[in-house]
Amino acid sequence: MTVADALAVESVASVVQRLAVMLGAGVAPTNAWRYLGDVDGFRDGVVDAVARAIAHGGSIPAAIAGALSSAEREQSSSAWRAVAASWFVANESGAPLASSLRETSETLRQLGQLHRDVDAALAGPRSTARFVGVMPLLGLLFGTLLGFDTIGVLVGTVPGVCCLVVGALLSVAAVRWTSRLVTRARPSESSPGLTAQLVAIGLAGGGSLARARDLATEALELHGLGEPDDVARIDQVLELSRVAGVPAAELLQSEARQIRREATSRAQTRAASLATTLMIPLGVCVLPAFMLLGVAPMMIAVFSSTMVELS
Fold it and tell me: Would you give the distance in Å from CA 61 to the centre of its chain?
């Protein structure tokens, strides 16, 4: 997860916001996509592909899904699939497209901010991970600068070759270990709170709860967004709506925003704890590799020169 991921998601959010504004002003959906494609500053590969597809009578959600290629960034592709799912549910349920897209745009902006926050929190641990990876090489360079033939010892003596092999294996293990730790610290959810939002859009169209939930599930499956999440929480919100006699759609939108805030908090917590977790490969792999590649060759060289002088 990088700043580039955040920019990709926010770029999709900007496109969706412009579509929502045009639809709210009475522009037809097909014309709104065509207008975006006609303006150079707002044009991108997905917009052009969708505009061409719907000009030949294609469905907009299907056109969005079909426009996504392997060249799209993973986060950008996930964001566009969320847009397609929202559009699909709004179309099928009769919910207002403009307001549905505004909420989707806000969702994507929050996800973009999540990526930025996590990237900032991971900046320190990533620097530590990079330093951990070069420590053994620094040990080797340190011995050479001190005048010891560390490279000659490592490749020209049996103990040196043993140190080289074990030290190299430990260094590779440390790099892979730290890389996995950093990967696990990143958010696993591509679109937290999306299920609740899709159900809310379905209810906004005036349909039944069962119909809204079926549409949400169908949209998630159709656009490759995984299984519905937070089902228990959605049930709790719907029960609250029934007991209190308040609109379920607004409660679900609020719950979706809360789910996204919680996802941000979890990601920041994992990123903060990563600095401590990285000490494990440092102690288990990096320091022994440093000793084997930096210190041990110097000791072997000193011992060898002493034995030569004594003989």
Answer: 23
What kind and span of H or E run contains 286?
A: none
User: CA-to-CA distance for 34 and 122, rounded, in angstroms?
Assistant: 40
Query: How does 41-68 read in b/e, with b if 16+ C-beta sit within 10 Å?
Result: eeeeebbebbbebbeeeeebbbbbbebb
Residues above pLDDT 70, as percent of the chain: 87
Q: What is the DSSP letter of 146?
A: T
- Which residues have CB under 8 Å from 196's CB, separation 6+? 230, 233, 234, 237, 252, 253, 255, 256, 259
d(CA 10, CA 4): 10
Say how many Å lie between the first and final Cα of the chain, rounded: 60
Render pLDDT for 65-87 as a digit per residue (tens, 0 to 9).
887 764 455 557 888 888 888 99
What is the spatial distance between Cα 205 and Cα 27, in angstroms, rounded to a whole number? Answer: 20
Q: How many CA atoms lie within 13 A of 233 on its CB side?
A: 19
For the chain, list residues with pLDDT below 50: 70-71
Q: Are 61 and 218 in contact (CB under 8 A)?
A: no
Give the residue from 78, 104, 61, 86 showing the smallest Cα distance to 202: 86
> Which residue carries 């892979």 as its tokens?
176
State CA 192 to chain mean position distance.
Answer: 11
Supply angle C-alpha 225, 230, 233, rounded to 5: 150
pLDDT of residue 70: 44
